[in-house]
Each structure stands twice: as structure tokens, then as C-alpha cells.
Write a structure and sequence with these properties.
The structure holds 2 protein chains of 2 kinds. In chain A, 0% of the residues lie in helices and 45% in strands. By secondary structure, chain A is an all-beta fold. Classes of the chains: A mainly beta, B mainly beta.
């Protein structure tokens, strides 16, 4: 399984863009980059995922480098409610059967959005 | 609302007591999971069930048993609770993406 490296913590000013980096230098060709977040010990929440193209949804944008060895999650206008631990996870498509689709969590990045 | 429901939300046990954590999902997902999360740590997989009638060990299965009662329900049992099992337990289900429950906060004294 490809492993990911994230900074343990980051700060961001409210209203500014939050850019969360993730390194995954051993990613395989069929592995996606998933981002989840966990707000104050609630269950993790899906944010976005991508294979090689940049992706955008109502919550965030995901920028994946051309060599796919790193990615950045962008929250365009961070609010206090975005304070959470953000997990970058590299896995095969989650609709795979058996253990291949199991999410494996690291320690993530604790993002603190400050007023 | 569709989702994953866990019960109870909080529980305190004495060492050696047993209990079952309940989890139910109404999204018709095949796969279900039990994770635990200790302070300052990410989630670790205890057991999972890829489909009704099957269960498999995850990263930290010792001290736990599971039952996939039907497609909706996946329970986690602690036969003889130990202080090391003090944790927050999350159940999840998936089809194309994961949906997590709100967690059960368990303290073993």
C-alpha cells in the first residue's frame, strides 16, 4: 500500500485559502488519492478524491502533480468550521471487494482556522 | 436520514465485563467496518465484513469479536473488557465511498 506523509499541523486565517499538502511518492498507477476530514471526534467525512486529474467539488479542490507523487487539498475560503484533522489516503478504488477497498488512516494534519 | 447509526454513544465498563456495540446502516451497502481511535491517533481497523455472511480481521482484532447479523447490522463484542480497550469506536459502511457513524465512546475502568 502506498504510504502518505502529511504535516502534523497547520494554521490558516479565516477567509483565506487553506492548502494542505500530501506526499505519496510510492503511489501505484491504479491508486486514487482520497481526502477525509474529522471534526472534533465525529466520524470522518468524505471530502474529495482523484486519480490524476485535478478535481473540484462544493467543498474543496484537489491538485495532483503530474508525476502523482504529491497532492494538495485546497479549501478556498476557510471558515472556523473547517477546523479539523484532514486525512490524505491512497488506495485503489473503494468499490473494490475484499481488503483492497479498506481505508487505512494515518495521523493526518490538524488544521486550525483562526479568526 | 440515511446513514450509519451506532449505539450506545457512551459506555463505561468495569474490567472483565462484556458488551456489544451495535451498528446499523440503511444504505444497502455490502461492506461494513469497525475502527477504533485512540487519543492523537488515526483510526485503526478492527474487523470488517465485505458482504453479508463474511467477516475478516483488520489491523487490531485481538480482544474483539464481530457478527454480521444481516446486510444492515454489524456488531462488535468485547467479551472481557480491558482498560486498553478504552477508545472511541467508529462503524462505517461503504459502496463507492465510506459513511461513518458518530462513534461510541467507551471507557474501561
Amino acid at each position: 500500500d502506498a504510504k502518505t506523509t502529511q504535516p502534523p499541523s497547520m494554521d490558516c486565517a479565516e477567509g483565506r485559502a487553506a492548502n494542505l499538502p500530501c506526499n505519496h511518492s510510492t503511489i501505484s498507477g491504479n491508486e486514487y488519492v482520497y481526502w477525509y476530514r474529522q471534526i472534533h471526534s465525529q466520524g470522518p467525512q468524505y471530502i474529495i478524491h482523484g486519480l490524476k486529474n485535478n478535481e473540484t467539488n462544493e467543498m474543496a479542490s484537489l491538485i495532483i502533480t503530474e508525476d502523482r507523487k504529491s497532492s494538495t487539498l485546497i479549501l478556498p475560503h476557510a471558515t472556523l468550521r473547517d477546523t479539523a484533522v484532514y486525512y490524505c489516503i491512497v488506495r485503489v478504488a473503494l468499490n473494490y471487494g475484499g481488503s483492497q477497498g479498506n481505508l487505512i488512516f494515518g495521523k493526518g494534519t490538524k488544521l486550525s482556522v483562526k479568526p | 436520514n440515511a446513514g450509519v447509526t451506532q449505539t450506545p454513544k457512551f459506555q463505561v465498563l468495569k474490567t472483565g465485563q462484556s458488551m456489544t456495540l451495535q451498528c446499523a446502516q440503511d444504505m444497502n451497502h455490502n461492506s461494513m467496518y469497525w475502527y477504533r481511535q485512540d487519543p492523537g491517533m488515526g483510526l485503526r481497523l478492527i474487523y470488517y465484513s465485505a458482504s453479508e455472511g463474511t467477516t475478516d480481521k483488520g489491523e487490531v482484532p485481538n480482544g474483539y469479536n464481530v457478527s454480521r447479523l444481516n446486510k444492515r447490522e454489524f456488531s462488535l463484542r468485547l467479551e472481557s473488557a480491558a482498560p486498553s480497550q478504552t477508545s472511541v469506536y467508529f462503524c462505517a459502511s461503504r459502496r463507492y465511498g465510506y459513511t461513518f457513524g458518530s462513534g461510541t465512546r467507551l471507557t474501561v475502568v
